[in-house]
Structure formats: C-alpha cells, structure tokens
Design brief:
By secondary structure, the chain is mostly beta strands. Helices cover about 10% and strands about 30% of the residues. It contains seven helices and 25 strands.
Length: about 450
C-alpha cells in the first residue's frame, strides 16, 4: 500500500480526532460552580461510563489521541464528548441490533447518553471526590492485562519508505511441553501505522483428529489468477517449507487486536508448536520498523474447544463507477455447531454487510447486520447468546460496495476491482468462531 493510501486509512489510530476538531474542542474559560442537584457529576455519573466503555483506548500509549482517565483530562472535551456519543460516533460500534445482543457491545445505552448530555449541558461539574470510582488498572501495553506467555518476532522488521510489500511470514517456537488451553490471544504490533492486518496461525503435529464443520461455496471461493502472482517486495526470509500443518488462531485488524474465548471455552494448542505470523505491511512514505508481539492468557484447566474458521468470495468484480455492488457468499454446516462470533472484512469500498442463517427447512433469519461498515474500525461481533446451528444450515453473507467517485475513501473509482491483498483492491471475507458438536478424537501414533 502506498504511503498516501495508508495515511487515508489510519483513522483507527485517530479514532476521535477528526470529528472532534470539526465540532470544536469545547474548552471552557472557567469550570462550573457547584452543580445543581439534578445535574449529573463527573465523579458519580460520568466517570463510571467512561471507564466501562472508553478508557481502554483513551489512555496513555493507546490508539486514541487523548486520555480520558481523569476529570482534568475529560473536562475540556465535555461538549465534544456529548456530541460524539449522542450521534453514535463514539464509542465506535456498527452492528444494527438491540443493545446487549453482543457480548462486546461498545455502544452506550440511551440512559448513558442522556447522563453525558445533561452533564455537559449543565456545566460539566466535577462532583464530590468521594463518589469517584477507582481508576481502572491497565497493564502497560496490553488491553487484556499482562499475558501468561509472550511471543515476539525475533527481530524488528524494516520497511522501506515506498513500494508494495507482499505478505511476510514470521515463525516463533513456543516450546510447549504439554497441551495448552488458551483463554485469550492479544496481538500487539509495535508500529500500528504500518500494519494492515495480522493473522496468527499455529503449526503443530496434530494429536487430535478434528472433523470439518462447514463447507464454503467452492464455486465462489476461487480467487482470480492475477491475485496469486503479483509484483511486490519480499524483504523477509523465504517462507519456511516442510512445517507441520497449520490452523488459524486469531486476527488483528484496525479496531480488533484480541480474541477472548467465551465462558467455558478455550483455544487448544498442541505441545511443541510454532506460531506463524502472516504480516501484511504497508509503506507510509518514510522508513519504519515493526516488531509484533503475541500474548496468551491460559485457561484454568481444560475447556470446550473453540475454533476459528473463515470463508470468502474471491471471484467478484466491482465495475468502475458503480455505487452499490452486491457480492454474496455462503457456507454450509456439515454438523451441528455453536456459532460464537462473526468478523466481516472488506477494504475501502465496502460499505455494509448482512448475514442470514438459512435453516434446513428453508426458513431464514438475520443474525448480523452492519449497515455502516468502517474499514478503520473492524470488529469481531461476539453473540451474547451463541447461535445453535444445525447440520445442513447455511450462512449467507452479503457485502455491498461503493466503487464510485462519491466514495471519498475510494482509491480509484475509474477501475474495475477484483479480489486482492492490498487495501486499494478488495475482499469479501468472513471470520467465524465456533464449537463443533463432534468432539475431536485422539490420534493414535503408529
């Protein structure tokens, strides 16, 4: 990806700045006097909302441009915060569903929005210090707290100032001597600005036989031949050959840096495995380095295995200038399964998503709708109540694209667009987290 294209898509690292500057910062010359009895206060009413929904990003060293941990930090932004939360811009959440449908829902309730509006309109008073909740204790550099095991790229990767960098692969031995049950996986690039995405794979000699869970539509899953043989820079060592089989574990993309297994589940890792990082780097007009780290937090004992999977349509074409192009994909379940979460992914022309579950009797229901997809804030939507999917059911994914000049993020509205790795190309990709009904069976060594 070129430097200019990357700069246009790094809004996840500027998650609030542009909107706030347009609205005005809202700095007051003097703070308000003692609040009226019916005006919410920061210590009693507002701080708990910010700590629950905002400060994981809005704290020193994280992706948001300012910290919201203290009253002195929050007060100058009071009216801007009011405006951002009232129209749903902040916290970023793009699924169209009743509040509470998703386990990781970042959006505010109507009551919480009302509290912030009344507080800002009432002079943004501080309130009684005795009402102040404890400031959240964050581990430096980790959103989920300090991991039990940390794995880092052997050395920093050096990016040139310009040029297209093809996928690079890095390998990190775990030296596990026994199977590990992993509760959470967090991915931390040291330089988010140059990382388009990371896929974390685990390579190990299988000790369990896992049965297939779903079958993507093979006719649509094919990618065009030109997508497999493109020019680009390879700066890392050649991809290793002769390794044990791999399976996907976790995803990093703008807005998504970790996966947490739901209650009673965990990711299972065989002993002696190797972590494989698929790194998609983008240049930014000046040289840079990155050294990505992966952290595992282990579960307390064995659990039901949760497995990641994916399906995608790689055979589409988005005609030049078209503002509303629909692209579908489907995957059929080969056994009963529990569906925990869905991760939609397109690039800069993607504008909305819809997922339907088609049951074996033909009945259909919408399980996820993302009417305003944002490439700069991608989300693994985790169901609060997981979906029980019967054998023979299908998930149908539909993505819509805007390849017209009216799309301000469009890299080039004058060209037809097909599947491709780079951000100026496109994808129709879905990640899923599931638990199959058929338990894996031990592999007996001969």
């Amino acid at each position: 990806m070129t430097g200019s294209a990357r700069l246009s898509t790094v809004a996840c690292a500027l998650v609030w700045t542009s909107a706030v500057l347009l609205r005005g910062v809202g700095v007051e010359a003097q703070y308000a006097p003692k609040p009226a009895a019916d005006v919410p206060t920061y210590t009693r009413d507002v701080a708990p909302i910010l700590y629950k929904n905002c400060t994981q990003c809005h704290r020193p060293g994280e992706i948001a441009p300012m910290s919201l941990l203290t009253y002195d930090e929050v007060r100058p932004w009071a009216k801007s915060i009011r405006d951002e939360v009232s129209d749903g811009t902040m916290p970023p959440w793009h699924a169209d569903a009743p509040h509470g449908t998703f386990l990781n829902d970042r959006s505010l309730t109507a009551r919480e929005k009302d509290v912030i509006a009344k507080w800002a309109n009432g002079g943004a008073p501080k309130g009684d210090p005795k009402d102040m909740p404890p400031v959240p204790a964050y581990s430096d550099g980790w959103a989920l707290g300090k991991p039990d095991a940390v794995f880092e790229m052997e050395e920093p990767y050096k990016l040139p100032a310009d040029g297209t960098i093809q996928y690079e692969y890095f390998y990190i031995p775990t030296n596990f001597t026994e199977p590990k049950w992993v509760k959470s996986i967090e991915i931390r690039p040291s330089n988010r600005e140059v990382v388009h995405h990371v896929l974390v794979y685990y390579r190990a000699t299988p000790d369990l036989q896992r049965t297939p869970v779903f079958r993507p539509n093979a006719a649509l899953a094919r990618t065009p031949p030109e997508a497999k043989d493109k020019e680009g820079i390879h700066l890392n060592k050649p991809r290793l050959q002769g390794l044990p089989p791999r399976r996907m574990l976790a995803t990093y993309a703008p807005g998504t840096s970790y996966q947490v297994a739901p209650e009673g589940t965990a990711f299972r890792l065989e002993p002696g495995g190797i972590i494989e990082l698929q790194m998609h780097y983008t240049t930014k007009g000046e040289t840079a380095t990155d050294r990505t780290t992966v952290g595992f937090t282990f579960a307390k004992g064995e659990a039901k295995e949760i497995r990641p999977g994916q399906f995608f349509n790689g055979s589409f074409t988005l005609p030049a200038g078209e503002a509303n192009v629909e692209v579908q994909m489907d995957a059929e379940f080969l056994q009963d399964a529990t569906l925990w979460g869905i991760f939609p992914h397109t690039h800069l022309r993607g504008k909305k998503w819809d997922y339907k579950l088609i049951l074996p009797d033909g009945t259909s229901k919408t399980i996820l709708s993302v009417p305003k997809y944002d490439f700069n804030w991608q989300t693994y939507y985790m169901f609060k109540e997981p979906l029980q999917v019967p054998k023979g059911a299908k998930i149908v994914s539909t993505a819509w694209y805007d390849n017209s000049a009216g799309n301000k993020s469009n890299p080039d509205p004058k060209v037809d667009v097909k599947w491709g790795d780079q951000t100026w190309e496109e994808m129709q990709y879905t990640g899923v987290l599931f638990t199959p009904s058929q338990a894996p069976t031990p592999i007996v060594k001969q």
